[in-house]
């Protein structure tokens, strides 16, 4: 009799526990958003020669999205390299002059002032050469930056520039192309503080898009909305098919 009562009590406790867990889980409505939004700009000034993508395209990492006219960048690079070549030869001559001056000075044929003068010429030429090499490095970097490439496999969200336009590099760079990750989407839902307190980043959750079948995502963000005790939860997932921002979705949170 005691055994039966114990089994019954255990079953009641288990049932209450499961009922509580079930009550804690909830389905929340939200909508799909792009994941990994990135707005690309250029750190150099120039005229746009080509724009190679359109909004809605999928592009692979490294794809050239747009390019500036390369001629000014190439000209500055060649000029810097030519200057460096000339200074390299001049530095060699100045170095040989220093050695000869030192030899003559050691033989007491040359005065200290004349030896010092040769050393000053060498040091000045050496400094000019280092500056020219640095300028060539900057010019090479500018030429490289004049081509805008996709930093990851992406979907093009917006193109805000056309061939022939001038791009001016400023502290607040002009946005040119907006991308999102091709292989990820996110669903945004709002929850109360007590629900947010139970959630853990990177925890797996179930979701469905536009009434489709359930799939798995992970909690990527739990952020305050700034409106009382409301929190915005972002769930990231790998889309099945062409899922776009704005589609309705449901998320099951623990």
Give an overview in words.
This protein has 254 residues and is an alpha+beta fold. The chain folds into three domains: 25-36 and 182-253, Efflux pump adaptor protein, beta barrel domain (Elongation Factor Tu (Ef-tu), domain 3); 38-69 and 147-181, OB fold (Dihydrolipoamide Acetyltransferase, E2P), CATH 2.40.50; 72-145, Helix Hairpins (Orthogonal Bundle). Helix content is 39%, strand content 31%. The chain is built from four helices and 14 strands. It has helices at 2-24, 71-106, 112-145, 193-198, and strands at residues 26-34, 38-40, 46-51, 58-59, 64-68, 147-149, 154-159, 166-167, 177-181, 185-192, 204-209, 215-224, 230-237, 248-253. The strands form three sheets. It has a six-stranded antiparallel barrel. The longest helix is centred in the middle third of the chain and has 36 residues, at 71-106. Mean pLDDT is 88; it is low at 1-24.
Summarize the structure.
With 254 residues, this protein is an alpha+beta fold. The protein has four helices and 14 strands. It has three domains: 25-36 and 182-253, Beta Barrel (Elongation Factor Tu (Ef-tu), domain 3), CATH 2.40.30.170; 38-69 and 147-181, RNA polymerase II/Efflux pump adaptor protein, barrel-sandwich hybrid domain (OB fold (Dihydrolipoamide Acetyltransferase, E2P), Beta Barrel); 72-145, Orthogonal Bundle (Helix Hairpins), CATH 1.10.287.
